[in-house]
User: Which sequence fits this backbone?
């Protein structure tokens, strides 16, 4: 894969975040961190394009998806989701539960 030099203007906070990632060992270099971000964005854009195509084809065959159908789907799936919470950290400790408490 060929690589190309790029000159870009970025927000200061994003630059600091990239440098922190390198300093903390989460990225090998600032260029690597930027490449990963661009790759994620390109993948995201491709997924949105595929989803839009799927919806167009679905609606062409079955009709336009209504607001009520979207509300019903949201309600249906919201009752079947599981909340995922991060593990407690030193700054935020979990409150111990008493045995047998719900």
Assistant:
């Amino acid at each position: 894969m060929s690589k190309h030099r790029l000159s870009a203007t970025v927000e200061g906070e994003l630059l600091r975040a990239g440098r922190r990632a390198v300093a903390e060992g989460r990225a090998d270099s600032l260029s690597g961190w930027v490449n990963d971000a661009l790759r994620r964005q390109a993948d995201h854009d491709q997924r949105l394009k595929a989803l839009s195509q799927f919806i167009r084809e679905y609606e062409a065959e079955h009709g336009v998806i209504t607001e009520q159908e979207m509300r019903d789907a949201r309600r249906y799936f919201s009752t079947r989701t599981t909340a995922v919470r991060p593990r407690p950290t030193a700054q935020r400790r979990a409150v111990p539960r008493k045995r047998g408490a719900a």
About this structure: The chain has three helices and no strands. The longest helix spans residues 30-62. Residues 12-78 form one domain.
